[in-house]
């Protein structure tokens, strides 16, 4: 008979641990429903003493969502029976919602920090050769743009000089034309 491998033992232990935690979550949902307490992911995680990640996992989330739907139907049934939630109950709901909101914000901040660090690691692991190649490409591109700019500047200067020469020539042609017209007008009786 072969002894199980360490990996198999660890997987079996994790499966048992996962099953135990999921059972605690289901029990916590039942207790919250029986007590008439509001059912939220954070409240279930606290009651079951598990991480909030677990209560959002597939196979667990569905139980909580179903319990929340059943809980939402309860006030409607109580209203029909003439019962209304007390002010203390509403304040408790508000406090729980605020707690859950705080936890969600903390989770969001934790995820942002994790993402920021992961992006930093990804940037650090980029191959230096790729960066060197990209720098060379950008340097060549910059040189081409600089050369194009110098040519455009030289062309612009040449065109300005040509425009100045043409303007001078046009002015001289106009002056000459005026003289010819004046001289011709003087010759006519």
TrEMBL record:
Region (Disordered): 1-22
Name of the protein described by the UniProt record: Transposase
Source organism (scientific name): Pseudonocardia saturnea
